[in-house]
Give the backbone structure.
Amino acid sequence: MEASEENNFVPVYFSGKRYDVPDSLTVMQAFEFIGNRFTRGCGCRGGVCGACAAIFVHPGSHKLEVGLACQIQVIPEMNIIQLPYFPIEKSHYCLDDLTPDIDSVGSIFPKAYKCVACNTCTKMCPLDIKVMDCMSAVLRGDIETVAMESMDCVMCGLCSSRCPVEIPQYDIMLLCRRLYGRYVQKPYRNLPKRLKQIEAGTYGEEIKKLMNMGIDQLKELYKQQQDDKQII
Amino acid sequence: MGYPESMRQSIKTLEETREFRLNQKIPLLNLDEKNQLLREFHPDYRPGVHREILVGVNKGDNAVGELVDLLEASSHVDPESIDVNDIFLTVDALVIGAGGAGLTAALFCSDQGANVAIATKLRLGDSNTIMAEGGINAAISPGDSPTIHYLDTMGGGNFTNIPELVRALAIDSPFCIKWLEDLGVPFDRDPDSDLPLPLLVGGHSRPRVCSVGDFTGMSIIQILRAEVEKRDIRVLDFSPAVDLILDENGKCAGAVLMDLLTETYQVVQAKTVIIATGGIGRLHIQGFPTTNHYGATADGLVIAYRAGARLGYMDSIQFHPTGTAYPDQLLGLLVTEVCRSRGAQLVDVSGEQYINELETRDVVASANVRQVIGRKKGITTPSGMQGVWLDTPLIDIIHGEGTVRRSYSHIYLRFKRYGIDFSKEPVLIYPAEHYQNGGIITDDMGRTNIPNLYAAGEAAGGVHGRNRLGGNSLSDLFVFGRRAGMDAGNRCRDIHIGKLTLKHLKQYHQELKGVGIENNLTSPVLLPDYRFEKAFPKFQQ
């Protein structure tokens, strides 16, 4: 892709001000095309870090739409702002002291009980997560459903930004994923045994032998090992 | 949007050969064949891409030209005009960088009772780690062992790795998995065995990749960030380090930060400093697109080098075989190697498969370059980029409908926004800059040659040799983040700092002048420049 006369320039409104930008660009690239060098509002540029959450409307529409600026393409006439940070109260908990149920979650996030089921959070999610359904599952104590349904969450904060009762949904969902990982899932089988084997020094000795081995012999062993690839 | 007609034609050809390819097995290359392919087609071997370093510890070594430019540039800081005794903050340990290695180092350092600060250029957690898709390697299955992991890693690096570091990686990785499990990382598991998924990644002879969907790094970073936030760790975000401070005895004793919002300098005095600033992709080595984060501009290498730290393997870059080549808006973004583990094949314009997909990354990337440039069998996009197909529909064909949607939900959504369903249509890929194999040389505790300066994660080099295996970067950064953090935390009690100085900067600049270098650049780069015309992604084939 090159800047050329083939580019089709379209008007977009960044924070209400009109700029004409090539319509082939992402919103993030368009911000840069007009001369902006990001400090806030840009992170991974790959759709996972949540730094570039953006809110926009189409002309003649009152409906707010959302997206990650690095992932969505410019739409003619869009009126857009970024929301790189949204303040919520930081939660401080120690996972060791918790149980995977509503008592734990509710004690850390009493606001969870205030959900009015308006579904605005779901509409605001750029990852299409059913955030309100997750909040209902929290109240039922169904930690597994919250974890499974919210796995894609990039913690951009758009859900919380428009919650009428100020629930920090994305922080609650993170807690649920952690409770799931720690208490609902079984731990990896064989891991405790492996740690004991390592501590007993078994592998240290084996590796020491390889470290002291001549390069030709090591290459031969490597070849054998690669030829013997196994799913076990 | 989806694919234009010209590309659809090529997809038809690919679909016609699919049934045949389902039963096709291309044998692995032997070491000689591998080396020949690398010499002919790996971008590292192109003429003129390396330059000699003319000053400093690595004088006489070769490195990628883009890095040498920065090593020859001037500091942001004028050592004459800054008062290093005007101290903004004093801590036991200063961690520079807040990705996987930085957060891990900070947590383990703080566990030792040390007073820790994290300085980072962007937000807490912003890093390449957050973009890690595939997973983290650890030999935890009964049929695997750290010894097997050690040998796979050594061979994957073509036996150029530093053995002591590989030993630490193989032995410590299972401990890191235990740590992450206890912090609540919801790792995937094989439901029948409660072990990591039964998938082989390139160059590994056993399944050992612990994953969380196709967003392993994001999941882990979210959790580590929450752990750091609840501790008494001072977070200095939007405050990159622009140079290190030494004391009068030549020991590392802090850093000068630049607050990006106020554009003012801040002096942090620290008994130990851990560099965890990550990689180099946003310098766009040889003009290649990159899979990397916005902040990956090699800042840590530059400031460490000016202070006298030794670098290594800086002429060795990992080009990931499967960076996105279409659509332009997603150029360079990673399509995880685990797609190939589940059976996705690489296919050229004739519908032919040409390489065993479980070869190491250097080999697969070279094979992709050979197919496009050497054999002219690439597929061209409307804007002129060429690539080869990754036949991802094979994944659902082999593993059942819905596997792609379930296992690659982020990548699925990314392509869906551009009208491509990658469970039903292949995706066009081409190698993209992915990882800096080299970096600051350390011992197996993360210590550099400068007393009290540590390095961990992608900023450090040596453990992967000249090629890294998939999944080993996360192992690397947790293993060495943990080791560096613990060692720095333990040792700082006995460290006494002498008078702070920046005279090493003055000496370094004099040395540059002495060999006649004046390139009018300032380093570290801090933020890449994509303004105006540069907003259009460039591609190098």
